[in-house]
Amino acid sequence: MNSELDILMELIVKSSHIVALTGAGISTNSGIPDFRGPNGLYRGNNEFEKLFSIEYFREHPNFFYSNFNEMFHKIKNANPNKGHMFLKKLEDMGKLKVIITQNIDGLHKKAGNTNVIELHGNLEKFICISCYHLIENDTEQYKKAIDKMSNKDVPHCEKCNGILKPDVVFFGEYVHDLEKALTEVQKADLLLTIGTSLVVYPASTLPSYIDEKAKLVIINREPTPYDEKAKVVLYEDIDVIADKLKIL
Ligand code: APR
Q1: I need a surface site. Which of 90, 157, 205, 238 has the fewest CB within 10 A?
Q2: What is the pTM of this model?
Q3: Is the CB of residue 104 below 6 angstroms from any atom belonging to ligand 1?
Q4: Ligand 1: centre distance to CA 109 (Å)
């Protein structure tokens, strides 16, 4: 009887159009906490849910800027881990065509993957919540915004004096590139979800759009709502799976 891992290996060998859907769990081994895992940010601390609410941010921007600075620098200083390198290898083998990620840490791009859809944005830009002016990360204003955040101050827009926010998607905002992600998922012959609880809309709907002939594989330390539909479910650390698959 083939193990789940053997079946996954067979699926990878046979696939020519793999799509990966990743979440915070792929970055925990890079030192970035997830949200709903055993040591997740949301576990027993509903204060954190307010941190990424756009309504709360509009009313209390100083709450965000007093609490996000440490996480910002932890994310910016993080490096890709074996899970990220596993997906980079799959791209180099011509098998992985796109990564759809819910993560804002940019670690898939840092690992060298070239086709990454960042549904929830990233920390490379700030945006003004009044005039939507975008501040790119190589500008003086970006550096000034980082300095303000380091002093737990609220950065303001140089054009309209509105409040600046990192260009990440807060609860209550539309995600980026959802149509594009949907199109990509429908092209997959194998959808690999890694390190995501698959409970946050709309990313959580994506696995339901795979072609009827496509296979779903879930690599996650804890159960997800899609486990029954998956061809393979591995309740295991992604680094351990990457090691055992021996394709790195
Ligand atoms: N290997 C495998 N699975 C892991 C690992 C690991 N090294 N570390 C954590 N996990 C699992 C956890 O058990 C958890 O089920 O990854 C999952 C991460 O789930 P969440 O914390 O809910 O993160 P995610 O699915 O990305 O959340 C989606 O919610 O708060 C919002 O915008 C935020 O993008 C985030 C979205």
Answers
A1: 205
A2: 0.96
A3: no
A4: 19
